[in-house]
Design brief:
- This is Glycosyltransferase family 4 protein.
- The chain is α/β, with parallel strands linked by helices.
- The protein has three domains: 7-183 and 338-352, Rossmann fold, CATH 3.40.50; 187-334, Rossmann fold, CATH 3.40.50; 396-448, no CATH class.
- 45% of the residues lie in helices and 10% in strands.
- It has 17 helices and twelve strands.
- Helix 5 (145-156) runs antiparallel to helix 15 (362-376).
- The longest helix has 38 residues, at 411-448.
- The relative contact order is 0.11.
């Protein structure tokens, strides 16, 4: 009988989702671990961690990345389930991000890759399919889209199974992604429900305000307060998750996101607690997904949030209906005790199938791009005045150099400098592409000989 595969999930604990999977896998008898890089201070939202590698103790990101890769190869783990990035990464897809993946595959291991949001939801594509895309409302994509496209093409050459959490993300994933819903351990989320009140408490908890549409929520709240509508409002930002949960339990209405068109983790948490949730869900995607003609939310977008929120505050019966239906939905579709079967089935299928091997040249083109970045990436490295061996900046990687910038420069200067670095990189790419095209033209012209008059 074949042994159960050994599984590592890494390198980030997004919204506490990976750790839920690891805990349930352990309950089912799997050797499973979750790994997170930290600066020695735990998760920024206070989520429990399974294993952590302290970047500071290992003298920087590169040593930490290599340490993680080496350890799990030596311990003979079978499946490397990556979330957002692999072991070896730099936040902005630079400095050979992802080049541990071919090394893992060369050892006959399997790779699952789970996208989490804007790692696959590229601006050009989101603007095509989403009328309420955050990019329409001033959200600045933090990454170079061309570099991301090259990275996604690179992944296609090696990843055995792409995973996404819902049909909205499936639009953006390369390959043939499998949808496995987000999940909660419902024993940790008992039903609370709502009471009857003349002054409902509305709670909004944006992890990223421009993405969640927080300015539209605030504008709606301001309008309704100016009308004299009786309600209280609490915006939660930067709070430890366990403290935020206490506010969710007290809430009569929870507002999630208004722009993406999909459930957030907060939607699931609201459903589990039996709290009415205001969120923007694309009906064309989520009615089929939840096999229903009526989504269990107060569906709102920037154009409708004021009216929807007003009606929900006034209507206790509607709130009570959403409270019941939300809990039913999370029990049917998002219970980790059920969802884990999808993961186990996926892992088993990956082990049984032949590993994915490169068939194109996406990885080679990505290598070219990373080599060009290594030559031209950091603006510091172009300045001979700081290249002498005594300068401590020379030993820092890109993220660490940016951290130094943030400490010594006013905050308003850091973003323009990053923009200048990206612009400089784009100029180098244009130069190199033009050079290659000219060289190709001259080679073809030479092959056919000079033109005769």
């Amino acid at each position: 009988m074949r042994r159960k595969p050994k599984i590592v999930l890494a390198p980030m604990n997004f919204a506490n989702m990976p750790i839920q999977i690891v805990r349930e896998l352990k309950r089912r008898g799997f050797e499973a671990e979750h790994l997170q890089y930290t600066a020695g201070e735990g998760h920024k939202f206070g989520y429990e961690l399974d294993r952590e590698i302290n970047i500071r103790e290992l003298d920087g990101r590169i040593n930490s990345n290599i340490s993680a890769l080496t350890e799990y190869i030596e311990r003979d783990f079978d499946i490397f389930h990556f979330w957002n990035k692999s072991f070896f990464f730099e936040t902005y897809y630079q400095e050979y991000t992802g080049f541990d993946i071919p090394l893992i595959k060369a050892r006959n291991k399997r790779i699952a890759y789970r996208f989490t949001g804007f790692d696959a939801r590229l601006p050009s594509r989101d603007l095509d399919v989403n009328p309420y895309s955050p990019f329409r409302y001033g959200y600045e994509h933090p990454y170079d889209e061309d570099l991301q496209k090259r990275y996604l093409a690179f992944l296609e050459e090696y990843v055995d199974q792409f995973l996404v959490q819902d049909p909205e993300m499936a639009q953006f994933s390369p390959g043939n992604p499998k949808i496995i819903p987000r999940a909660l351990n419902l024993s940790e989320w008992p039903f609370v429900g709502i009471g009857k009140t003349d002054r409902p408490l509305v709670v909004h908890a944006p992890s990223n305000g421009p993405v969640k549409g927080t300015k539209f929520v605030q504008a709606a709240v301001d309008t309704l307060q100016s009308e004299g509508l009786a309600f209280d409002y609490k915006s939660i930002e930067g709070m430890a998750h366990k403290d935020a949960i206490e506010w969710y339990k007290r809430a009569d209405i929870i507002v999630d996101q208004l722009l993406i068109g999909a459930t957030g983790v907060l939607t699931l948490e609201a459903w589990a607690l039996g709290k009415p949730c205001v969120v923007h869900l694309r009906e064309d995607l989520f009615k089929p997904f939840y096999k229903t003609g009526e989504l269990p939310v107060a569906n709102a977008n920037p154009d409708t949030i004021t009216n929807v929120l007003r009606d929900l505050i006034k209507d206790h019966d509607w709130r009570a209906h959403l409270s019941r239906e939300g809990r039913k939905t999370v029990e049917e579709f998002h219970d980790i005790a059920k969802v884990i079967d999808d993961y186990i089935e996926t892992y088993d299928a990956m082990i049984s199938a032949e590993p994915v091997r490169p068939t194109g040249t996406g990885d080679i083109e990505y290598l070219r791009c990373q080599a060009e970045l290594a030559r031209d990436l950091i603006i510091f490295n172009a300045d001979d005045s700081i290249q002498h061996s005594g300068n401590p900046l020379r030993r820092l990687d890109g993220d660490e150099k940016l951290a130094v910038l943030q400490k010594v420069l006013p905050a308003f200067l850091v973003w323009p400098i990053r923009k200048l670095v990206n612009l400089r990189r784009a100029c180098f790419r244009i130069r190199d592409r033009t050079r290659r095209r000219v060289q190709g033209f001259l080679a073809r012209r030479g092959a056919h000989g000079p033109r005769t008059p």
